[in-house]
Design brief:
Elements: H1 6-22, H2 27-54, E1 56-60, E2 66-70
Antiparallel strand pairs: 1-2
């Protein structure tokens, strides 16, 4: 797959889903679309994982100093 942008891949994935949901595709075409969609899902998942690793939180400690730490989606917000 050539280097694609996440947004382009998601748009194509939406097209594929609509086509598959319509039920108008021949079996062979539906299988090809499904395979393409699975490739796009893998691509998008990889891009999302890469982005998640880059996200950091700016945290203020009790002294008013700021520091960065990795973002953890499972972590509960503090002080709320």
């Amino acid at each position: 797959m050539p280097e694609e942008k996440f947004e382009e891949a998601m748009a194509r994935l939406e097209e594929i889903v609509k086509g598959l949901e319509s039920g108008d595709l021949a079996l062979e075409d539906a299988l090809k679309a499904f395979e393409e969609g699975m490739g796009l899902i893998k691509f998008c998942s990889k891009k999302l994982e890469e982005a998640e690793k880059k996200v950091t939180l700016l945290v203020e400690d009790r002294t008013g100093q700021y520091s960065q730490r990795p973002f953890d989606i499972e972590e509960e917000p503090q002080g709320e």
